[in-house]
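Chain entry —
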Amino acid sequence: MQTVALIDYGAGNIPSAQRALEVAVERSGLESRLLVTKNPDDIAAADRIVIPGVGHFRDCREGIYSEAGLVEAIEESVLKKGRPALGICVGMQLMADLGLEDGETKGFGWIPGTVDHIPTDAGLPIPHMGWNELIIRSEHPVLEGISTGSHAYFVHSYHMVCSNADDLKAQVEYGGPITSAIGRDNVFGTQFHPELSQETGLRLLTNWIKWQP
């Protein structure tokens, strides 16, 4: 029995993410337990962790760092034990070195890169909101069965600019290329919301639950 910890630090779309993960757990066919928690002991002991995030980079970082022992437990799970981690929206952005929303704010530094504003010179509305077609840039087990042209749901004004091209797994076109999925080692992240992306999102979550990095 594996435990999947969905971290509830007050800055994520928890009910929707919980429902989607419950469906993905059932689809995976694996004996898994979904736990919504911010308890450091639970997170350090979990087999997988999901880091959600909605809102501004700085607010989410401050929220997660304000919970005593939470960041230390996340780092123990992901960096020391090598447990699979999934970041969603701002939860993905926090994996970067630096966020530029509301000034410079340090991220976790797990995947080299900077979270910067979506370019506005194309005259398209910001935030980038609604459905868009994924462009797969690199094969990854979490993207199995998801191809270029698959639709996903986005709500964001900033995106991650990866320092290393190998960490970029998928993009979308929105007046230029916008990062939509990243991955390195035991870490994976999506700028889009898999919990709102219907079949594409459920497939991704199911793949991630089964993923053995």
Summary: The chain has six helices and 14 strands. The longest strand covers residues 177-184.
